[in-house]
Amino acid sequence: xxxxxxxxxxxxxxxxxxxxxxxxxxxxxxxxxxxxxxxxxxxxxxxxxxxxxxxxxxxxxxxxxxxxxxxxxxxxxxxxxxxxxxxxxxxxxxxxxxxxxxxxxxxxxxxxxxxxxxxxxxxxxxxxxxxxxxxxxxxxxxxxxxxxxxxxxxxxxxxxx
Length: 161
Fold this sequence. Notes:
- 29% of the residues lie in helices and 20% in strands.
- By secondary structure, it is an alpha+beta fold.
């Protein structure tokens, strides 16, 4: 899925455009995450009512359609640092061009990840024990398997596989 398709979805669904005013690195991270997630079966884009409001919810989330459910089960989300305004997380994003990838996974699965030392517990004002995050810094390589493995683990866990 390209950024153009994300922007078209945002425009057609009346959603918050999270790509506006973002750096090339932030857009590259979003592009890579979207390509990984949207290659998986039954994945759709998702935004909550508070998307784009300073990290309270994911700016853009990816959910898996499940039989018998009206809404998708969100397993992955991207958080950008807001250009201005409040930040509703306990820890700030460490620097410019950093993006948080939030995944719904267990601590055991996070420990098995190649990025285990970078995975942190949810730092929301009301932390959710099922969520973890990785801060993707400008020096991290997006082309390797660690990012894909982390996302795919979360995808399979929401389905109970």
